Amino acid sequence: MRFLQLHLRARRVPLALATVTALIALAWALSLAYTDSATISARTASLAIMLAVVAVGSTLDGADGALDHTMAVNWPVRRAGHLLLAAAAITALLSLSMVTDARYEPFAVTVRNTAGLLGLTALGATVLGAALSWIAPLTWTLIAVLPIMVPSRDLKMQVAGWLIQPAGTTAATACAVVLAVTGLLAYAVRGCPVRPMSETSPDQ
Fold first, then answer.
1. What does the pLDDT look like over 152-198, one tens digit per residue?
2. What is the pLDDT of residues 84-106, one digit of tens each?
3. Residue 50 pLDDT more than 90?
4. Within a 13 Å sphere around the CA of 88, how many CA atoms are in the beta-carbon half?
C-alpha cells in the first residue's frame, strides 16, 4: 500500500484525477446551462474526453525515467494497469451524468472515444514522452469537431471523424480499437523515452 501511494504521488495522479473530474463536470454544467437537450453533443463530449485524457497523459511518466525501465519491477504490467485504471476512472466519471438532466451518452460512444483517445495519448507518450503526449489527441479531436465533419457513410469521413460518428459505426469503432490496443501495447512494453540526466537533475 505504501508503494502504491508513493507511485501515485510520484506520477501526480491525485492532481490529474481532480483535473479530470473538474473538466468533465464543467462540460456537463455548460451543457446543462446552455442547451435544452438531454444528451451532451458528440463534439462537446469529445472535447471533454480529450481534455481528460490529456490530463492523464501527464501521469504516464515518473520523475526518474531510468527507474521506470528497471528490470527489478514488472513495469509492463504496471503501465498497462495504469492505463486501464485511467480509462475506468474517466468512464465512471462520465457515467455519473446518466442520473442527471444532461447526459454523456450513448454510453458505447463514451467508452469508444475514451479508449481511442487514451490509446492515442499513450502512443504519444511512448514516442514523444509524457510532456508532449497531448499533441496527438488534441490534433485529432480538433479535426474531428470541425463543422465540416459530420456523421457520414463515407469511409474516410468515418475514420477522420470517428469521435463524432454514431454508436455502431464499424469504421469508427475499428479506428478506436486499433488506437486503444496499439497505444496500450506500445506504452506497456516500451514506456516513455528515458530523458537525459540534464532534464531530470535539479538546477545547480
1. 888 999 999 999 999 989 999 999 999 999 999 999 998 888 765 44
2. 999 999 999 999 998 888 888 88
3. yes
4. 6
> What's the gap between Cα 167 and its chain centre?
19
In the block, residue with C-alpha cell 474516410: 156
Coil, helix or strand for 185?
Answer: helix
Cβ 75 vs Cβ 69: under 8 Å: yes
Cis peptide before 196 (omega within 30 of 0): no
Q: How far apart are CA 196 and CA 28, in angstroms?
A: 41
* Structural contact between residues 121 and 183, judged by C-beta atoms closer than 8 angstroms: yes
Closest C-alpha among 198, 179, 44 to residue 112: 179
Sign of torsion over alpha carbons 152, 140, 117, 26: negative
Q: Which of 116, 125, 110 is nearest to 159 (CA)?
A: 116
